[in-house]
Structure formats: C-alpha cells, structure tokens
Amino acid sequence: MKIAGIILLIIGVTSIIIQNTFYGYVDAEGFLHDSLFLPLGAFATILGFLLLSVWGIKVFIKRFRK
C-alpha cells in the first residue's frame, strides 16, 4: 500500500507538471485546449494521498495497540 501510494503520487505530480508545461492553452478563437493529463494527475494524486493516509493510520493503530 505504501509503495503503490508513492508511485501514484509520482505519476500524479508528473502528469500535472506535463500538463502545465506542454498542454493547456487558449487558441485565437478563445477555446481552451486541454489534455487528459490534468484529470489523470488529479486522480492519481488524490488516490496516492488516500493510500498513504490509510497506510499511516494502520501503522499508527498498530503501534498504539502495543
């Protein structure tokens, strides 16, 4: 769970950086052009934080019970 959370965080942050660097612009007619890196990055980042939070809570509970 810990490794999966870290990997998802890395994928999410990388996707958001790629989105902000290469994609996402407004053309001459005022249309916003976007890619799927933004929702992918947001989803992966949120899921990574969620997995790391669950793992942290499990570790905390396990240490607290001893």
Global shape:
rod-shaped
Radius of gyration: 17 Å
How is the biggest beta sheet arranged? 2 strands, antiparallel
Number of strands: 2
Quaternary structure type: single chain
Separation of the first and last Cα atoms: 22 Å
Percent of residues in helical segments?
Answer: over 70%
Number of helices: 2
List the domain count as a whole number.
Answer: 1
Stretches where pLDDT is under 50 for at least 5 consecutive residues are: none
How would you classify the helix and strand content by structural class?
A: mainly alpha
> Which sequence of strands runs across the widest sheet?
1-2
Mean pLDDT: 91
Series of H and E elements:
HEEH
Strand content: 5-15%
Brief summary:
This protein is mostly helical.
Description of the molecule:
By secondary structure, the protein is mainly α. It has one domain. Helices cover 76% and strands 6% of the residues. It contains 2 helices and 2 strands, in the order H-E-E-H. The protein has a two-stranded antiparallel ribbon. Helix 1 packs antiparallel against helix 2. The chain is rod-shaped and about 65 Å long. The two termini are 22 Å apart.
